[in-house]
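Design a sequence for this backbone.
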């Protein structure tokens, strides 16, 4: 089974993807983390993506689709996609890619959250730039401020988690990514979870969805 995490920035997709990777044996891809790795390495893609990311805009579809084709071609078995697709053309490209690999269309888990909660989640987010692991200064604090519990590495606040860029990213979400909700719902592939609940409760809800879906597909 292949799973897409859909929802606004700050809804908790990265947090849940890291937890579920361990539990469900799905290989996780975060397009944001991949793009940040390209930026750090100074690749042509990283340089092309930089200005869009800094402005809170989407990186052009062609670049993202090419990057994800490369990643998914090297993978066998189920994947969990965090942050991809983010536009309808990206979703169509993903369907075609999975079909080419002889896989069924992915299901989408929608992280349902009131957009008024997003600002607080993103302004308090601390990220380990090496692993992509995230904390929150109030909701999920590390044991020692500024230090990752797992690898002891430094935590940073992302350049695009500022009030102004967050506002821009939410507009972009509404205009370009939210249409995917209708896309997946129309094809009977959308499952919604209440992303306002505590992290453990959201994880349990996602696991229920995945297990129910596995049962349906076997039936
Ligand atoms: P996304 O990947 O959707 O942008 P993240 O997983 O990075 O979201 O979460 C955004 C911020 O909110 C992080 O600081 C994270 O620790 C925190 N967070 C994630 N899930 C929850 C939750 N269920 N309740 C409270 N805070 C959360
Ligand atoms: P968040 O976790 O807050 O939702 P991400 O780390 O997923 O943010 O993405 C950061 C930035 O990377 C986005 O604002 C956008 O510029 C770029 N990006 C990530 N995924 C995509 C995608 N699928 N299509 C276009 N741009 C993307």
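Sequence:
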């Amino acid at each position: 089974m292949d799973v897409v995490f859909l929802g606004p920035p700050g809804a908790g997709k990265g947090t849940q993807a890291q937890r579920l990777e361990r539990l469900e044996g799905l290989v996780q891809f975060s397009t944001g983390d991949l793009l940040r790795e390209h930026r750090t390495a100074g690749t042509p893609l990283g340089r092309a993506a930089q200005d869009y990311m800094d402005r809170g805009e989407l990186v052009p579809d062609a670049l993202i689709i090419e990057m994800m084709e490369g990643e998914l071609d090297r993978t066998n078995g189920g994947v969990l996609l965090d942050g991809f697709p983010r536009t309808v053309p990206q979703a169509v490209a993903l369907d075609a890619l999975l079909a080419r690999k002889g896989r069924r269309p992915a299901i989408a888990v929608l992280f349902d959250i009131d957009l008024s909660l997003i600002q607080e989640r993103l302004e308090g987010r601390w990220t380990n730039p090496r692993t992509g692991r995230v904390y929150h200064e109030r909701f999920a604090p590390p044991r020692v401020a500024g230090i990752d519990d797992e690898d002891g590495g430094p935590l940073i606040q992302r350049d695009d988690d500022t009030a102004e860029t967050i506002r821009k990213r939410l507009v972009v979400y509404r205009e370009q990514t939210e249409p995917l909700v209708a896309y997946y719902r129309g094809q009977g592939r959308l499952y919604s979870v209440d992303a306002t609940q505590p992290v453990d409760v959201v994880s349990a809800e996602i696991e229920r969805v995945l297990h129910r879906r596995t049962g349906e597909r076997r039936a």
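The domain at 3-218 is CATH 3.40.50.300 (Rossmann fold).
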